[in-house]
TrEMBL record:
Keyword Isomerase: yes
Mycothiol-dependent maleylpyruvate isomerase metal-binding domain mapped to chain residues: 10-143
Pfam families for the chain: MDMPI_N (PF11716)
Residues spanning the membrane: none
Entry protein name: Maleylpyruvate isomerase family mycothiol-dependent enzyme
Gene3D superfamilies per the UniProt record, alphabetical: dinb family like domain (1.20.120.450)
Originating species: Actinoplanes subglobosus
Key words, A-Z: Isomerase
Highest rank taxon of the organism: Bacteria
InterPro entries for the chain: DinB/YfiT-like, Maleyloyr_isom, MDMPI_metal-binding
GO MF entries: isomerase activity
Length: 247
């Protein structure tokens, strides 16, 4: 299961991103991000919109966003939301700063055992917080890489790795394959080892946790990573790896 400090870590991840965004110039906000078709302002707008959706779905004062009414796929729906509300980068930054704090407060206050509606599947608040951490981390890369700004990897990636590993069975089923036992031996940013999955599995993914998380976020092709695979299902697991959410 996810670590119980996920709410603190989500807040810390957002704070790290906020420290980067606070230093952007007007030209920076208009810079193309690594998310195709979106500027850096668009990426932050997307994060603001989805944080507002977290507060709405967790709290009693608003209705969850009806994603299916906005597009044929989740990506289409997210794109439509961004296209409808593009604006000034500084104003979007202010909107996100409010939205991210409201969302964390709502998640902290929610019953951790009661699933809430989120996009395609109900999620318990700690798992929803984990997905929000993973999304903020991945989009931080979309922002910082094009700008040439450093964004250090931290121990918070353990949540992202947990999410990717925990959803491998779903990824196998989505590909029309039976789930296969896989274990991971990952080297954390501080050099410690993270062991995930079935310890008796003969299929293994090993290497840097940062690469594992980037592959799962579709920010790094498996072949360009430093990850190693072994066993009958290791290569397939790495190919299918995604940081999906589970309930």
């Amino acid at each position: 299961m996810a670590h119980t400090d996920v709410f603190d870590d989500l807040e810390a991840e957002q704070q790290q991103l906020e420290s980067v965004l606070a230093r952007l110039s007007p030209a920076d906000w208009a810079t193309p991000s690594a998310a195709a078709g979106w500027t850096i302002a668009d990426v932050v707008l997307h994060l603001a919109q989805t944080e507002e959706a977290v507060t709405a779905t967790v709290g009693a004062h608003g209705d969850p966003v009806r994603w299916h009414e906005l597009g044929a796929t989740v990506d289409e729906a997210m794109g439509a939301l961004v296209a409808a509300e593009r604006g000034d980068g500084e104003q979007i930054f202010g909107r996100w700063r409010v939205a991210r704090r409201d969302a964390v407060a709502a998640l902290r206050a929610a019953d951790p055992h009661q699933p809430v509606r989120w996009v395609a599947t109900p999620l318990k608040p700690p798992t929803l917080a984990t997905t929000r951490l993973a999304e903020h981390w991945a989009h931080a890369l979309d922002i910082t890489v094009p700008l040439g700004v450093g964004y250090p990897d931290t121990a918070r990636l353990r949540h992202v790795a947990w999410l990717g590993m925990g959803t491998l069975p779903y990824a196998f089923r989505l590909a029309g394959l039976p789930p296969a036992p896989v274990r991971c031996d990952l080297t954390a940013p501080d050099g410690s080892q993270w062991l995930l999955g079935d310890p008796s599995a003969d299929s293994v993914i090993s290497g840097p946790a940062a690469d594992f998380c980037r592959v799962g976020a579709q920010r790094l092709p498996p072949g360009d990573s430093k990850l190693q695979v072994s066993g009958p299902h290791g290569a397939t697991a790495l190919r299918l790896l995604r940081n999906y959410a589970v309930s």
